[in-house]
């Protein structure tokens, strides 16, 4: 689990850290769309420069982001190589049986590779500089305008923050159950595939049962503390939209415009 | 303040012996009431009925001169602070301060007031330094302190503790009970506490013993402690002073079956001077 960088938070006080989570989330959504527009050298170079600049602003070491890419490297290389060998068209550089490297293929492979890296870099930047809790707040408040369309914004926000709060608790539960079952002689990760799957059942069922119990106790505790839904509630956590947030969104929009002009149609 | 009139309650319809069988009692304003008894004697059910989390089969519950009905359920609930046994399952917020603020948010308290009340409550239970910590980083006892702070933050008229100090060490427990005694005196808060802890029982004004869904006895702690051996059958320990008195009773003549530590000390000095 330590290898997984995505979803971790690194405390800091950089400009990126201080941005409102809503602006960061919005910027990220726009940026992902923009990444798919990049289809030539100039646009990709521009995005790479912008991503590296944002990372530099956050004050987090580049090594962290490279480590974020590492678990995905298998998938990235797999798709890139497929693109490289199986896309036909244009000048042929290399030919062996049905495998061929062409100009178009090389181009495609490069673009796919860049897309992966840019998306991972930027989403890692978001999660490394934003606490999960404020991300949940941001989701709720961004969904709020959709309320007239019957989108349960408050409920989604509450569910998100409750699940985030219970992740470590359930992890502890899992480890406790695993150790208890080990003490009773269950072998995990031994034998063939079917045996392995079967050995998961003694973890899964108690885990489900205890989650149900927890959910029940939590619901009772929430009710006894006067929770009756999202209406008429005030908020302890207030999100503040500052001028720097508007500025960040503007920068992203400018990048989007540049890309739109520079991309090959 | 709280009036429990002939309450009968069953969890499952057709359950042979009801969980609560025609239970009646009364709690005065500002009183500290302990409820003791074995597992399954109906203690937790009783306090859940007071908070309206469960509905009685027959009988009436009156709180502050109002009968508890579906209509006034929420206004009454806002007067009651409740703390449960397992702190992990009642921690709603993602951090300590969020959790303490949760009931205030539900009540619709303004942001500025919320901030000051959260700080005040955390100060009271000695958790102010842990304000921004997540529950996963706290010990069981610390989580219970936060849960108690969450209940105290809403300035309840009635505080219900369902074995809420079970995970604290003896020192922390006494410290918190001390804090709650102080608040109780300042605000005329009524406290109902389910507990197995003798120190807590000794500090309360009155003890109700429950057994098999009925009230077995209703007395002051001193009377209860005088029952010696039968205390163990009720899910309690024998107080330390009582066992000292018992051990020495062959040689010495004590004036009562139960004495506080201080009284025992004086009694022993008195007996010594007579020798």
From TrEMBL, chain B:
Q: Which domain of life is it from?
A: Bacteria
> Which GO molecular-function terms appear in the entry?
ATP binding
Task: Give the family this protein belongs to, as stated in its UniProt record.
Answer: Belongs to the ABC transporter superfamily.
Which parts pass through the membrane?
Answer: none
What keywords are annotated for this sequence in UniProt? ATP-binding, Cell membrane, Membrane, Nucleotide-binding, Translocase, Transport
Species of origin reads Streptococcus caledonicus
Lineage, broadest ranks: Bacteria, Bacillati, Bacillota, Bacilli, Lactobacillales
**Membrane topology term:** Peripheral membrane protein
Q: Which residues form the ABC transporter domain?
A: 2-237
Asked whether the UniProt record includes Transferase among its keywords, one would answer: no
Q: What is this protein called?
A: Energy-coupling factor ABC transporter ATP-binding protein
SUPFAM superfamilies per the UniProt record, alphabetical: P-loop containing nucleoside triphosphate hydrolases
The entry's localization annotation reads: Cell membrane
């Amino acid at each position: 689990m330590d290898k997984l960088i995505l979803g971790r938070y690194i405390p800091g006080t950089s400009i990126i850290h201080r941005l409102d989570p809503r602006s960061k989330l919005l910027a990220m959504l726009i940026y992902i769309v923009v990444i798919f527009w990049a289809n030539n050298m100039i646009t990709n170079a521009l995005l790479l420069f912008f991503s590296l600049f944002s990372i530099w602003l956050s004050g987090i070491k580049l090594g962290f982001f490279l480590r974020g890419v590492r678990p995905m490297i298998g998938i990235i290389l797999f798709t890139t190589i497929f693109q490289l060998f199986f896309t036909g068209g244009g000048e042929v550089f290399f030919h062996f049986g049905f495998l061929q490297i062409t100009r178009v293929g090389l181009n495609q492979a490069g673009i796919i590779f860049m897309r992966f890296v840019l998306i991972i870099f930027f989403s890692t930047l978001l999660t490394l500089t934003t606490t999960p809790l404020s991300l949940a707040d941001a989701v709720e408040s961004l969904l709020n305008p959709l309320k007239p369309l019957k989108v349960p914004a408050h409920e989604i926000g509450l569910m998100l923050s409750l699940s985030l709060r219970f992740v470590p608790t359930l992890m502890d539960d899992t480890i406790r159950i695993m150790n208890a079952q080990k003490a009773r002689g269950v072998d995990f990760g031994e034998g063939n595939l079917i045996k392995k799957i079967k050995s998961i059942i003694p973890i899964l069922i108690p885990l489900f049962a205890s989650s149900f119990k927890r959910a029940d106790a939590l619901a009772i505790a929430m009710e006894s503390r006067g929770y009756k839904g999202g209406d008429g509630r005030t908020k302890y956590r207030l999100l503040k939209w500052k001028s720097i947030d508007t500025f960040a969104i503007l920068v992203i929009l400018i990048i989007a415009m540049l890309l739109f002009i520079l991309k090959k149609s | 303040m709280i009036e429990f009139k002939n309450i009968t309650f069953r969890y499952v319809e057709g359950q042979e012996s009801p969980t609560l069988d025609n239970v009646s009692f009364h709690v005065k304003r500002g009183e500290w009431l302990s409820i003791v008894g074995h597992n399954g004697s109906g203690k937790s059910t009783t306090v859940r009925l007071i908070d309206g989390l469960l509905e009685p089969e027959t009988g009436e519950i009156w709180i502050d001169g109002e009968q508890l009905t579906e209509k006034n359920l929420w206004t009454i609930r806002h007067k009651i602070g409740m703390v449960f046994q397992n702190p992990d399952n009642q921690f709603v917020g993602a951090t300590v301060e969020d959790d303490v603020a949760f009931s205030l948010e539900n009540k619709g308290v303004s942001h500025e007031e919320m901030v000051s009340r959260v700080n005040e409550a955390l100060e009271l239970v000695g958790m102010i330094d842990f304000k921004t910590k997540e529950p996963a980083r706290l010990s069981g006892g610390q989580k219970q302190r936060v849960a108690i702070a969450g209940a105290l933050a809403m300035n309840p008229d009635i505080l219900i503790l369902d074995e809420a100090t079970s995970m604290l060490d003896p020192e922390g427990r006494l410290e918190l009970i001390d804090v709650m005694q102080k608040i109780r005196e300042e605000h005329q808060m009524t406290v109902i506490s389910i507990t197995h802890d003798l120190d807590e029982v000794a500090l309360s004004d009155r003890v109700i013993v429950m057994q098999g869904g009925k009230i077995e006895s209703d007395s002051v702690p001193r009377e209860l402690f005088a029952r010696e051996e039968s205390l163990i059958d009720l899910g309690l320990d024998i107080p330390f002073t009582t066992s000292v008195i018992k051990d020495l009773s062959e040689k010495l003549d004590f004036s009562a079956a139960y004495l506080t530590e201080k009284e025992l000390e004086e009694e022993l000095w008195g007996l010594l001077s007579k020798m």
